[in-house]
Write a structure and sequence with these properties.
By secondary structure, this protein is of the alpha/beta class. Helices cover 37% and strands 20% of the residues. The strands form two sheets. It has an eight-stranded mixed beta sheet, with helices on both faces. A six-stranded parallel beta sheet has the order 11-10-9-12-13-14, with helices on both faces. Helix 7 packs across helix 13. The protein is globular. It holds the Pfam family Glyco_trans_4_4. It comes from Thermococcus barossii.
């Protein structure tokens, strides 16, 4: 008796997949659902194996150096990544079922391959790409390029077979990504919300580490600077406060240079290149998690991964006011919302010490709850 051939999924990604936590969790779920999964990743750092298998996930990396936070360099080299990824898919297309674009920068290639080879086109929107320029410049402004990106993102959502995205309204004042696409003409029944929640196997309830003073942690990619200045001002006034950064990112060096120049006496620690499987122990070191960003449309409509990871670990979170995250922390009484000012941040840290996120948040806001949604998106 012949065994049924497993359907093949290619996931396109413009980072090296170190791994990327969300893509890693989605890929593992797809394998559990019976798919063979290959992540085609752009190794923009040029420092990772070209072929690797990570927990059953086939990884093919395109080694092509490109500067982070440089749109010019990125878009100059993106066609070369497209060409290499295209050839890999075409040469390995036996059993090809779906192409999964992670964010807008891989959507054009995914759409083309899906139509050329008769596969499903899954468009996974982690961030609203048209807001990326605003985040890099750390202020919201409208430009022709931004309008073009916005139009294109909506177009590819309409062209896709399924849209996977990260947020919707939770019953408060703010809307999520799903509402953004629906308001712009995408059919709601093809939009699937896969929350940025943690896999509880990797985020057990660890015993909180005893320490002197107070530790506020930022755990994740560092893409901006201005949102941290109020925190540094508080640390300058309050010597018992330690700031813990865990992760790399395009703005990490700029942030360290600012600290050396303007805040040499604050207590701050940087930890880089932590395997995702070890991140939980750094949460256990923290008294509060800082999830505050330059306020853009994207931030208003999304949930930061660190917010979910913090609350399931039982740690209060500090988030931006006027966002979907503010709705969440008010509904679930698990944090404090702030304007980006030192006085607001200082008060938020004080308030957070009196907050303990409800234990039942672990039961609802975890990755296991996403698996049925991912299955439906692929049907």
């Amino acid at each position: 008796m012949m065994l049924m051939e497993r359907k093949k999924v290619f996931m396109l990604l413009t980072n090296p997949f170190k791994p990327d936590p969300r893509v890693y969790k989605e890929a593992k779920t797809l394998i559990e659902l019976g798919f063979d999964v290959t992540v085609i990743a752009w190794d923009r750092e040029g420092g990772y194996p070209s072929h690797e298998v990570i927990e059953g996930i086939e990884v093919y990396r395109v080694p092509l150096k490109s500067k982070y936070a440089s749109f010019a360099d990125f878009f100059l080299k993106l066609p070369l990544f497209y060409l290499k990824a295209f050839l890999y898919v075409v040469n390995n297309r036996t059993g090809f079922y779906a192409i999964h674009a992670n964010d807008f920068d891989t959507a054009p290639l995914a759409f083309f391959l899906s139509r050329l080879l008769g596969a499903k086109f899954i468009y996974d929107v982690h961030d609203l790409y048209y807001t990326r320029i605003s985040l890099l410049e750390e202020r919201e402004k409208d430009t022709i390029l931004r309008k073009l990106f916005r139009t294109a993102e909506i177009l590819f959502a309409k062209l896709s077979d399924s849209v996977i995205t990260v947020s919707r309204s939770v019953g408060g004042e703010h809307e999520g990504f799903k509402e953004f696409f629906v308001r712009n003409g995408v059919m709601p029944d093809k939009i699937y919300v896969v929350w940025n929640t943690p896999d509880l196997d990797l985020f057990p309830l660890l015993k909180r580490q005893k320490h002197k003073g107070l530790i506020v942690g930022y755990i994740g990619t560092i893409r901006s600077v201005s949102n941290f200045i109020p925190l540094f001002e508080v640390a300058r006034r309050n010597r018992i406060l330690k700031i813990l950064f865990v992760g790399a990112g395009a703005s990490r060096d700029k942030l360290q240079a600012l600290i050396s120049r303007e805040y040499p006496d604050i207590n701050v620690e940087f930890v880089k290149h932590v395997p995702y499987q070890q991140v939980a122990k750094y949460y256990a070191d923290c008294d509060a998690i800082y999830s505050v960003f330059p306020l853009t449309e994207n931030i208003r409509r999304t949930f930061a991964v660190k917010m979910f990871e913090g609350v399931v670990m039982g740690i209060p979170v500090i988030v931006n006011k006027d966002t979907l995250m503010e709705d969440f922390i008010h509904i679930h009484r698990c944090g404090v919302a702030v304007d980006i000012s030192s006085n607001d941040v200082e008060m938020a840290i004080e308030k957070s010490l009196k907050i303990k996120p409800p234990a039942q948040l672990r039961d609802k806001w975890n990755w296991e709850k996403n698996k049925e949604t991912i299955k439906k998106a692929y049907e």
